[in-house]
From TrEMBL:
Domain Tetrahydrofolate dehydrogenase/cyclohydrolase catalytic: 81-196
InterPro entries linked to this entry: Aminoacid_DH-like_N_sf, NAD(P)-bd_dom_sf, THF_DH/CycHdrlase, THF_DH/CycHdrlase_cat_dom, THF_DH/CycHdrlase_CS, THF_DH/CycHdrlase_NAD-bd_dom
The protein, known as: Uncharacterized protein
Record key words, sorted: Hydrolase, Multifunctional enzyme, NADP, One-carbon metabolism, Oxidoreductase, Photorespiration
Subunit and interaction comment: Homodimer.
CC terms in the record's Gene Ontology section: cytosol
An example Gene Ontology biological process: photorespiration
Domain of life: Eukaryota
Protein's pathway: One-carbon metabolism; tetrahydrofolate interconversion
Length: 369
């Protein structure tokens, strides 16, 4: 459900909640349309990190550059990280690899999606995943179960997919109905087919030094991919992750740490989150609160990756609502060096990473290089 109120990002410390006003939608930056930065094409950075191909974004090159950027500089305008474009490039790369694999060994990757219940947003995500699979040549299998299904029914489908050789990835759409135990269900997915990367063994391997998971969770992997493709240096930088969920915040923090950032995690009990966030060269937000992160929370020149997807009422939109992130975009885009929009930032990357994980799984299972 869309929230019926929207922070207008205009008060100082706390969000003032007002009815939606059209004027708030005006683009804040004079140069905004021209600053959408297209990253050059290159293979997935997760497999082979480093090698930034874009010139460093304003303010990200060094502390002195960041210090030079002033938050009162009205011309300052962040580069937009175009997740939609990067995701398209990645899908094209994946389609080429799938065609090669099919030619060489006659195998196409298969992804099974299990959806329980009839939440509209979950149905949309699953439909979009299916479309994305078809477009790159991944065969998709779908199971739709009613809301009142038993945990055993879900487990039965997982077991069937675990032993089906044409299925290389299994995804159980979250959230599950309340009467089901997420842990039991996620534990049942074979770790070799856990393309969401949510199995405790995969998360454990992600957390451990010198170990690698079979799969990195898609949304955090997408965030890292955007940072890599836009040439954001991570090693030695300060990063703040806002949110610590098992599916986004926590694995995002682990990945940043693996990439040698110094990481702080902000959560609902954190005191003075703005002071902590203001120290960060890189901020990843995954909270689910519209406009939580204000311009005053951001270090000039920082890279901001906004994972939040928050519906707010918008009578002028055909759907009656629109999506905004956790970051007050109007304010943040005047101070940050780089920023992801919502929509069109991390969301499309999540789906691209799911396709990437499914291809990776098929290649590993069939020992195809
Ligand atoms: N773009 C994409 O592809 C995806 C987007 N999302 C979106 O990302 C957002 C987060 O999703 P998810 O991680 O699943 O959400 P969860 O609700 O599982 O986790 C939210 C986290 O935010 C923290 N939090 C809540 N309120 C505050 C606050 N005021 N200040 C600081 N931290 C706070 C919570 O802290 P605590 O742990 O203390 O409760 C918790 O760790 C949602 O908007 C979701 O729709 C999610 C997945 C993919
Ligand atoms: N097992 C499981 N794995 C998930 O990865 C998973 C999940 N369950 N449950 C729900 C969350 C959410 N999620 C998103 C995926 C794509 C967009 C996306 O493509 N968003 C578009 C907007 C789409 C629109 O306009 O509605 C964008 O940000 O541009 C958003 C959110 C994956 N999740």
């Amino acid at each position: 459900m869309a929230s019926s109120i929207l922070s207008d990002c205009s008060s100082s410390a706390t969000s003032r909640l007002l009815p939606l006003r059209r004027a708030l939608l005006a683009p804040p930056c004079r140069f905004r349309p021209a600053t959408v930065a297209a990253p050059p094409r290159r293979p997935l950075a997760i497999a082979a990190p480093q090698l930034p191909l874009l010139p460093r974004a304003r303010g990200m090159a060094s502390a002195s550059a960041a210090a030079a950027a002033s938050s009162t500089d009205s011309d300052a305008c962040a580069k937009i990280i175009d997740g939609k474009l990067v995701a398209k490039q990645i899908r094209e790369e994946i389609a080429v690899e799938i065609a090669k694999m099919k030619d060489a060994i006659g195998v196409v990757p298969g992804l099974a999606v299990i959806l329980v219940g009839s939440r509209k947003d979950s149905q949309t995500y699953v439909r979009n995943k299916k479309k994305a699979c078809e477009a790159v040549g991944i065969k998709s299998y779908e199971v739709n179960l009613p809301e009142d299904s038993s945990e055993d029914e879900v487990l039965k489908h997982i077991t069937t997919f675990n032993s089906d050789p044409s299925v290389h990835g299994i995804l159980v759409q979250l959230p599950l109905p309340h009467h089901m135990n997420d842990e039991n269900i996620l534990n049942a997915v074979s770790i070799e087919k856990d393309v969401d990367g949510f199995h405790p063994l995969n998360i454990g391997r992600l957390a451990m030094q010198g170990r690698d998971p079979f799969f990195v969770p898609c949304t955090p992997k997408g965030c890292m991919e955007l940072l890599h493709r836009y040439g954001v240096e991570i090693k030695g930088k300060r990063a703040v992750v806002i949110g610590r969920s098992n599916i986004v915040g926590m694995p995002a923090a682990l990945l940043l740490q693996k990439a040698n950032a110094t990481v702080s995690i902000v959560h609902s009990n954190t005191k003075k989150p703005e002071e902590i966030t203001r120290q960060a060269d890189i901020v990843i937000t995954a909270v689910g609160v519209a406009n939580l992160v204000r311009g005053s929370w951001i270090k000039p020149g920082a890279a901001i990756i906004d994972v939040g997807i928050n519906p707010v009422d918008d009578p002028e939109s055909p759907r009656g609502y629109r999506l905004v992130g956790d970051v007050c975009y109007e304010e943040a885009s005047k101070i940050a060096g780089l920023i992801t929009p919502v929509p069109g930032g991390v969301g499309p990357m999540t789906i691209a990473m799911l396709l990437s994980n499914t291809l990776e799984s098929a290649k590993r299972i069939h020992k195809f290089k």
